[in-house]
Structures are given as C-alpha cells and as structure tokens.
Amino acid sequence: MAFEEVPTAARAWAAVHGHLLPPTTAVWDGYPVGTWTKNQRFAARAADTNAERREVGLAVESSAGALTEARRAALDEIDPGWCPVWDTDGNAASGSPRTSCKTAGPCRWRSAR
Length: 113
Prior knowledge:
The longest helix is centred in the middle third of the chain and has 23 residues, at about 35-55. The protein contains 4 helices and no strands. By secondary structure, it is an all-alpha fold. It has helices spanning about 5-15, 35-55, 70-80, 95-105. It has one domain.
C-alpha cells in the first residue's frame, strides 16, 4: 500500500480517537491504519538509526525502508506523538502512557535525530 493512500484515513482515525497510536488491528474506511502506522514507526526508527550512524561517522548500509523527512512531517502534522519511544502494542488501547505523560509533563516521543 502506497504511503499516500492512508494519511486521510489515519487523520480521520486520529480525529476520532485523539491520537495516532492505533492498535495494529485498527481499520478505518477500509485502510489498515494500525498496521500502516506501525510500519511508519518502524521506518522512522530506521531513519533515526541511519542518522545516528552518520553523525558518528559510521556507514549506513541502506536507506531502503527509512522514513523520509516529508513523510515524517506529514505524520507529525496529524499527531506529534505518533512515534513514541515505547512499543505501542498493548499500550495504545489503554492510552495509559500518553495519559501519564500529559499529567506528568513533557515526554520524549522519539529518540533524538
């Protein structure tokens, strides 16, 4: 599934639920927004790992599958917390990590780039 096909469904899901941390089983308007968002988080972490390797002078074997800055910006526009540093499988439904972050203060949503 092409990246461009899902953001509208992801935006709608986030508008209803208040965040873009869908469980992997979430489907909206026929689009598997849960699996898609999980894959985007994986791609974001790959891009972050590549950036960290470059910063310390290490070679990057491949940028294939890494999220581009334009796609990251599109997801950040939907929900800046779409890619938390914790694993969202099992946490998204309860919302507890996000709720505790809102009450406890700022969270580090993803590793430094």
